[in-house]
User: Fold these one by one.
Assistant:
Number 1:
Amino acid sequence: MPLVISELAKRFNDGYLAVDGVSIRVERGQIVGLLGPNGAGKTTTLRMLMGLLRPEAGTITVFGQRVRPGSAALARLGSFVEGPGFLPHLSWRANLDLYWRATGRSAATANLTEVLEIAGLGAAIDRPVRTYSRGMSQRLAIAQAMLGLPDLLVLDEPMNGLDPPQIREMRDALLRYAGDGRRAVIVSSHLLGEVEQTCTHVVIMGRGRRLAAGSVSDIIGQAGASSSGRRRLTGRYRCSPASPVSTASRRTRTGSSSTRTACPPPMWSPHSWVRASR
Amino acid sequence: MTSLDAGRSAATHGAATHSAGPDPGYSPARTLPLRVEAIRQLRRRRTMLAFGIMLGLPWILAAAFALGGGPAGNTTGLASLATVGGLNFAAFSLYASTGFLLVVAVALFCGDTVASEASWSSLRYLLAAPVPRARLLRQKLTVALGYSLAAVVVFPAMSLAAGTALFGWHPLRLPGSLVDLPPGTALVRLGIALAYILITLLFVAGLAFLLSVSTDSPLGAVGGAVGLAIISSSLDAVTALGNWREILPTHWQYSWLSALQPQMSWDSMIEGAVVSTSYAVVLLALAFRRFRHKDIVS
């Protein structure tokens, strides 16, 4: 199993509970979309997955190995989170080359040509980093995440900053990447349409919690269809944010009374939001 | 996933790299090689500029002395003896740079190293590569100390070359006593002075490195380390503090002048070396500890 996240929670030093008991499973061949508005806890979840943040509770396992900061399990994961991170004084090629050498693996396993092809990048990578647009920078960062063709690709808002043709290319690239059934992709987005068109499965998040999970056709199809469909969704995944019982029990479990004030505003339900986005 | 599912997927995709467990091509001990880190830092404008100053400034200083007709007056300090010869000029440039220039150079390399990665957002990709956190710090500290060493050694070496070119190769005239030391002995004494200066700069290195893992602003880390060193020097000037000044890390930074006495004494240099390395060990331990537990939000 590429990724199993169970009951993950993260509270920041200022007391803000960013992620609250989230569980996610990603299987081979799946492209799992992490869908939710800004502040839903998507990026915090992915940062914990990368070993950058220490979870307050819960576990992450990648191909059966527990993820801890810097643990070897991360070697099977390629990531792009919150924008590119390049050294501005070097060329693109030098950046990718030095990054790959920093991972300690042999140049032969980088699959650079294949990656550039998947990411839709040509011979333009010999120019210095400063000379490129944000879209180009973003695509190169995603190419960097794909170096070595990792079995699990983690992408945080990969379509942000790309123009429509680039978005189409990126979508095709992701489909190709997971298409052979051996690799898996987890991708976050705040846009329903993106997830609908790119992903096979979706996890809906809001205010740090998992609100729904399942295949894209089940979840998004139902939620948008009818009120009975919405009821089925709520019943099936036991995730109604409005339920006073579940809210109370969560607050007790994490032992905090400040959850409500620390949470970002406004009252938000996945259903109204899903409808509004369509 | 059940064991049945796991078995099926393993049978379907039998390739080694696609099974469970770690990536066989990955080894933590091979991540972020020193060579790679050195190249990443070398091509930076900051590195180039620092070495440019270290290599060019001695010539500017020497030219200023030559054109200005040498120091006036009849004092017996290192400055007034700067034009006696290359060895004297090298000793003078050490004296002129101990309090600030060399401090800035070391703070630059050690303070910039982690904070600049955070400011470029590249730190998170190195850590997720994954380069284990303690290893990342070790490799970065090694390279930063290497560059610091090079910069601090290059400056007096170039001063010796510039001074010799402009003022000739003469015995080292010692300040105060005006005794002449033969060049061979003088080179050994200057070597001892330089080695001692490097040890006193370990405090600056440790401080800058701790600030570097604590902030995402490279300028803040470098400036903070230089600033604290200056504050320490200023406190050292307050004689009312009495013996308390002896635990200030900069109190001993000019103790190498005792290597330029006719009869060399080690006492204050040993004391200074102990104080500086003690500070450095504590500050570096704090840096490693802080980074190991830190949430990376850059």
Number 2:
Amino acid sequence: MKLLALFWIFFRLGLVSFGSVFAVLPELQRALVHQGFITPEGFVQAFVLGQVVPGPNMAMCAVIGWHVAGPAGAVVAFAGIYSGPVAVMGAAYAVYHRWRDVTWVRRLELAVRPVVLGLLAASAVSLLWTAAGTQRLLALGVAGVVGLLAVSTRLGALALLCVGGLAWSLAQLLLG
Amino acid sequence: MGWLRVNLAIGTLSFGSASRIVLYEDAVVREHGWLTEDEFAEVVTVAQLLPGPNLVNLSAYLGYRLVGPVGTVLGVLCLCLPGAVLAVGLSGVLAVEKPWVQAPLRGMAVAGIVLLLLFLWRRLSGLASTADPRTPARTGVRLVRGLLLAGVAAAILLGHSLFAVLGLAIPAALIVEFAP
């Protein structure tokens, strides 16, 4: 039952994860916490692990699955999140090859664009809130440093993540 | 086999988000010549339009087109498994409740969110596009798109269910785009 519930959470969110997992993070967190599968802090840690490994950031789903139900949970979460999109793309391939009216497809994409970006914005704000916990000033400071480096240097994503980790650790050491 | 190798390479060696679409383009268009530049651009549009992470959608759609259903599933596995296994491994090794592990993880989480915000920022200019690349959208259309974006974000942050929000926002978005 637990595995089934886990699969269902990931499967239905995989079907609406427009753009990336970021679009559904708040809903994913809400559903998992509501079922008692994970704490908000555990969720943020899974998010980080998903960010530091290569490949799609959906890797965090396997971590959450493992956390909830061991190896079977990891497999169920992995299959749940990816099977929907892969099936949908199969259907899309079959249909799209018949109607290759690109303007029409492009207009659909343009139409859903603001919705996708709105979901992204909500994810960023709610994650920042959870990651900061009680240390909101520190979180804003670290975010400022990373943001400044990101726009003024050519550092890659991995380097910037390391800078963030270092900055928070140093601040913690210095401030006690 | 070539297709699986492409996916495995991107799945193990790529970090960061949107830039990885370029890695597929490099491999599929320039290195192997499986698709032309134009065909690839079409595939990217379909991958972004439909639900699912862009990178996985892209791999799946290219897979169906290039190697058939079995190759598609294997390709997606090659793309996604290395990161998932590594993430699970790391989560087992790291004692996340210790403060000296917590601090860098939190810093990295914040940095990851900053990357997300920057990605979002770069994408905002896309709200001014229309189906014809030469004519930008009218001010009214841009304004409505901006309001739609803000409305969706606010509704989610206020705790409304994703499905309720999408159920209202997607029809609204379609009306805005296709209304005469």
